[in-house]
Amino acid sequence: MLKEYKGKVTVKIDGLAASAGSVIAMAGDEVLASPVSLLMIHNPITQVYGNKELMKQVISMLDEVKESIINAYEIKTGLSRDKISNLMNNETWMNANKAIELGFVDGIIDRKSLENLEMPNVSDSFSQIKVMNSLVNKIAHKCKIERKENINKVKATDLFGRLDLIKNWRNK
Q1: What is the pTM of this model?
Q2: What are phi and psi of 29, to 5 degrees?
Q3: CATH fold group of domain 10-113
Q4: pLDDT digit string (tens) for the chain, length 172 residues
Q5: DSSP secondary structure of 81-111
Q6: Per DSSP, which regions of the chain are E strands?
Q7: Does Electron transport show up as a keyword for this record (predicted)?
Q8: Where are the domains of the chain?
């Protein structure tokens, strides 16, 4: 889907792009990595339980998945399929410089360009209530559901009391 986007896609690896995350990163027109980031590639993995015939089918499926992943890496890096396969066989971890050297990343994120950015209030950014309310509002809007405001305003202490009653009733 990222490859089909009409605009320019810039992928920024600010921490870790491992496993499927590394494959997704390859969809960027430009891939930038933080100086302290890591990128990791490996062979596809699965768990299976079954007989010999099922195991053969799973091996075949894993081979196809690997070929598909190699396609993404090859398009981005220009490396040979054998080289990429060997890197995957060895579960290769790359810092930003190594990732640039191998063609997985195009450049380093310039921290100086980020100096004037306004930092969000962390408590607001990671507020579970705000995230949940935002999600509920988006779903309500998408499904054309009118939200009723101020329904049953109940104090949290009253709700905890009700929960305690339920817990005690279940334990009897």
Answers
A1: 0.65
A2: -70, -35
A3: 2-enoyl-CoA Hydratase; Chain A, domain 1 (3.90.226)
A4: 888 889 999 999 999 999 999 999 999 999 999 999 999 999 999 999 999 999 999 999 999 999 999 999 999 999 999 999 999 999 999 999 999 999 999 999 987 655 555 555 555 555 666 767 777 777 777 777 776 665 567 777 777 787 778 877 766 6
A5: HHHHHHHHHTTEEEEHHHHHHHTS--EE--G
A6: 10-13, 16-18, 30-33, 38-41, 92-95, 107-108
A7: no
A8: 10-113, 125-170
